[in-house]
């Protein structure tokens, strides 16, 4: 079976595991980041057979989805009962996905992976607190650096623990670019949420800065991949995948 057929199977199984009748009746279907799913699977597949790699990938993706679900929760005051109920269910569904993650890993008896992800989630929360409650004012590049740490907190931790530290810079840059594109799209849709919601820039100014950052970061990542002398199997697979995805993201 080819890598992408294996990934299709993992994605299908993940969709089935995420189904919850009541949650889906009230909240949107959880978004599965196919890029993260692919890269997690590539990482695990280097050391594990297909079934184990798929199980670990699904478990970590559930943890990612739990974090992302909590991130969609609104903070403004709600008086409408239905909107208030939706917010409460958003919190509970994020908790449900997080609990599902621990449950699936516990069934596999992989205590080390549970520990790695727990540490990564702690780092993720600390990075977000530092972003939204900084001890000093962040300049533009400091802000970008903090977002990069958040976006790769979990996948970077897994890569390092599996012995693939050499690919973390490329993975981190790729997911930073994806996040900046998502932030730009939010502003283009005039949705004042996301990591840049507190910046004192109007929409046009912020979109212009994000466009420039995305363009520069994409060019730098492409050049870094091209210049690298790394000939490891994992790097070559990631290089091909990221090069294929970069034009689609930007």
Task: Describe the structure in your own words.
This is Heptaprenyl diphosphate synthase subunit I. The protein is mainly α and 250 residues long. It has two domains: 1-109, no CATH class; 137-249, no CATH class. The chain has helices at residues 3-18, 21-26, 34-45, 50-71, 81-108, 111-132, 140-151, 153-161, 168-188, 203-227, 233-249.
List the helices and strands and how they pair.
Blueprint: H1 3-18, H2 21-26, H3 34-45, H4 50-71, H5 81-108, H6 111-132, H7 140-151, H8 153-161, H9 168-188, H10 203-227, H11 233-249
Helix pairs in contact: 1-4, 3-4, 3-11, 4-5, 6-7, 6-8, 7-9, 8-9, 9-10, 9-11
Beta-strand residue percentage: under 5%
Order of helices and strands: HHHHHHHHHHH
Number of structural units classed as domains: 2
The shape, in one word, is: globular
> Using DSSP, what is the number of strands?
0
The mean pLDDT is 84
Helical/strand content category: mainly alpha
Number of helices: 11
**Roughly how many Å apart are the termini?**
31 Å
Compute the CA-based radius of gyration.
19 Å
Give the uncertain stretches in residue-range form: none
Largest sheet: none
- Approximate helicity band: over 70%
InterPro entries: HEPPP_synth_su1
Protein name: Heptaprenyl diphosphate synthase subunit I
Organism: Sporolactobacillus terrae
């Amino acid at each position: 079976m080819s890598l992408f057929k294996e990934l299709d199977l993992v994605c299908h199984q993940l969709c089935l595991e995420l189904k919850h009748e009541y949650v889906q009746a009230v909240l949107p279907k959880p978004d599965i980041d196919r890029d993260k799913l692919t890269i997690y699977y590539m990482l695990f597949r280097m050391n594990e057979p297909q079934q184990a790699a798929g199980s670990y990938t699904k478990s970590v993706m559930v943890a990612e989805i739990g974090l992302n679900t909590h991130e969609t929760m609104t903070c403004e005051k709600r008086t409408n009962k239905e909107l208030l109920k939706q917010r409460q269910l958003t919190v509970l569904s994020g908790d449900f996905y997080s609990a599902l993650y621990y449950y699936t890993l516990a069934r596999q008896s992989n205590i080390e992976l549970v520990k790695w992800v727990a540490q990564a989630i702690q780092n993720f929360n600390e990075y977000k607190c530092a972003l939204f409650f900084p001890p000093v004012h962040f300049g533009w590049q400091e802000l970008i650096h903090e977002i990069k740490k958040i976006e790769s907190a979990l996948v970077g931790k897994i890569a390092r623990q599996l012995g693939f530290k050499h690919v973390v810079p490329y993975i981190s840059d790729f997911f930073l670019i994806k996040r900046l594109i998502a932030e730009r799209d939010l502003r283009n849709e005039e949705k004042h949420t996301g990591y840049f919601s507190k910046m004192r820039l109007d929409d046009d100014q912020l979109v212009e800065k994000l466009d420039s950052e995305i363009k520069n970061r994409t060019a730098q990542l492409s050049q870094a991949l091209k210049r690298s002398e790394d000939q490891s199997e994992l790097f070559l697979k990631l290089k091909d995948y990221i090069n294929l995805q970069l034009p689609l993201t930007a």
